[in-house]
Amino acid sequence: MVIGLTGGIGSGKTTVAGFFKELGVPVYIADKQAKELMETSEEIRQGIVDLLGDEAYNGKFPNRKFIASKVFNNTEKLEKLNSIIHPAVENDFVQWKNKQSSAYVIYEAAILFEKGGYKKCDFNILVTAPKEDRVKRLQKRDQSSRDEIEARMNHQWSDEKKSELADFTIENTNLTQTKEQVRTLHRIILKSGKNS
């Protein structure tokens, strides 16, 4: 089974993914793999250079600041960039999943609902946290300004909209309680796998 895991920036989805990992569940972090594929796949590199120009890469490494500046306020270019990267990540995930032998795997992606990826998952988990907590975490983690953080948040769907598509929601405000919620979900998912 494939369990989708998502949440807005600063919600703590990577922390939640870590708790699943501690329970022995294999975790695939789509954003991390996308970054890796941008460095290793010649096909992706060529597609991005064709779309945005030679400046999109410094040697073999993507020039992330340049790429972000080109697509952040250009929906058409962002869509095209995603259409270069997403299919490659999907193929990579399928190959990875086929090597796993656990009852289920976690597929963690920032824009799981926005791009329809949730439809390929057996269940979907949404990680939420109060906005103020998220802003504080991101200020600490990325040294970003409040305005930058809010601009990024406004680019993502709201938790209300996402929760309509989620099968389960983990409220991540207290790590002990979050861990307990993960354990409970782990039991539920294992049970549902036996009944299917």
Structure description:
57% of the residues lie in helices and 14% in strands. Strand 3 and strand 4 (61-62) form a beta hairpin. The chain has helices at residues 13-22, 30-40, 42-52, 64-71, 75-98, 131-142, 146-154, 159-163, 175-195, and strands spanning 2-7, 27-29, 57-58, 61-62, 105-108, 123-128, 168-171. The model has no long low-confidence stretch (mean pLDDT 93). It contains nine helices and seven strands, in the order E-H-E-H-H-E-E-H-H-E-E-H-H-H-E-H. The strands form two sheets. It has a five-stranded parallel β-sheet, with helices on both faces. Strands 3-4 form a two-stranded antiparallel ribbon. It has a domain at 2-26 and 100-195: Rossmann fold (3-Layer(aba) Sandwich). By secondary structure, the chain is of the alpha/beta class.
List keywords for this structure.
196 residues, alpha/beta, Rossmann fold, five-stranded parallel beta sheet, two-stranded antiparallel ribbon, 9 helices, 14% strand, kinase, coenzyme a biosynthesis, P-loop_NTPase, nucleotide-binding, transferase
Q: Could you give a quick summary of the protein structure above?
A:
The N and C termini lie close together (10 Å). The protein has helices at residues 13-22, 30-40, 42-52, 64-71, 75-98, 131-142, 146-154, 159-163, 175-195; strands at 2-7, 27-29, 57-58, 61-62, 105-108, 123-128, 168-171. The chain has 196 residues and is an alpha/beta fold.
